[in-house]
């Protein structure tokens, strides 16, 4: 009986050590991923500030939205294809890597335009007399939709991985079209010139 208890305790202790080591390694790996993500975000944001004065805010928004749409389309196609491929195949593993690469490209594309440009454009196009109120409303709308995406993401992912990323692709395509049609270029323009666009 004692031998069984010792073996059980040893097994439990060994399992606990294994789980602890796994958790430490997993946290380290996830921390590395966060650091890499933050590194690319900072680098892309610095590049964005430089590009905004060279190429213009509107172009950056269109390129950013389009690149996000393409990368999310690649991710959605990868997920659709994975439904028909054996998880043991090499193609399945390749599609997994393609999905990860697509998300990385999407994060970089977001940082190159949609991350910073809306806030810059908002500060440039709003008249001074409503800038505080309108800026507050725009910030509220931004956080509301961020909350909505966070709330629905798991529900959508449970429904369909490919379908979820197809919806996100469509939103990016809509954004690129909206910017191309409705958002004025503000680079190098005075507040009066920008206000003329809206009259």
UniProtKB/TrEMBL annotation:
TM segment ranges? 59-81, 93-121, 133-153, 165-183
Q: Its GO CC terms? A: membrane; plant-type vacuole
PROSITE patterns the record matches: MFS (PS50850)
UniProt domain Major facilitator superfamily (MFS) profile: residue ranges: 1-187
> Where in the cell?
Membrane
Domain of life of the native organism: Eukaryota
Entry keywords, A to Z = Membrane, Sugar transport, Transmembrane, Transmembrane helix, Transport
Mostly located where?
A: membrane
Q: Which GO terms describe its molecular function?
A: transmembrane transporter activity
- Provide the membrane topology annotation: Multi-pass membrane protein
What SUPFAM superfamilies does the record point to?
MFS general substrate transporter
Family statement drawn from the similarity comment of this UniProt entry: Belongs to the major facilitator superfamily. Sugar transporter (TC 2.A.1.1) family.
Protein name per its UniProtKB record: Major facilitator superfamily (MFS) profile domain-containing protein
